Amino acid sequence: MASVNEAIGLVGDRQLKLALMTLQEKGAARIMKRALRAGATVVKQGAKSLAPVETGALRTAIQTFSTKSRKRGRVNVGVRVNPKYTKGERKPSKYAHLVEFGTRTAPANPFLRKALAQYKAPATARITQVARQRLRHEAKRARARGVLL
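The chain above was modelled as a monomer; its predicted structure follows.
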């Protein structure tokens, strides 16, 4: 099965990076997980608007997800078709890749790849916005505990 692996990187926001580095590891991971989920939600909404609708099952099954790696506190966040969702006899995770990449007889309708391409900039902006908000929140928490930030 083919897969699409794209990444959105935050590059150049020096103040945000420095502030995140001064936080404890848990606080920084908490901030980034929330921020990345907010950015993924932007892409998810775009994918839902671009997904073809026959029964609505595929559109409904699109979701965000996150996984936590045990190595160095790495968090992965993304958009996928929920493998557990079913609508009657239909299970969108069984045919979503056929819609995305096409078949011999049906042309491709790349709703996920198109959503990422179209919504990459708004998602990055949302990630930065939420990271800044959460950073202010974590700084308040640190000051309340007596830890200077």
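Strands lie at 62-68, 75-81.
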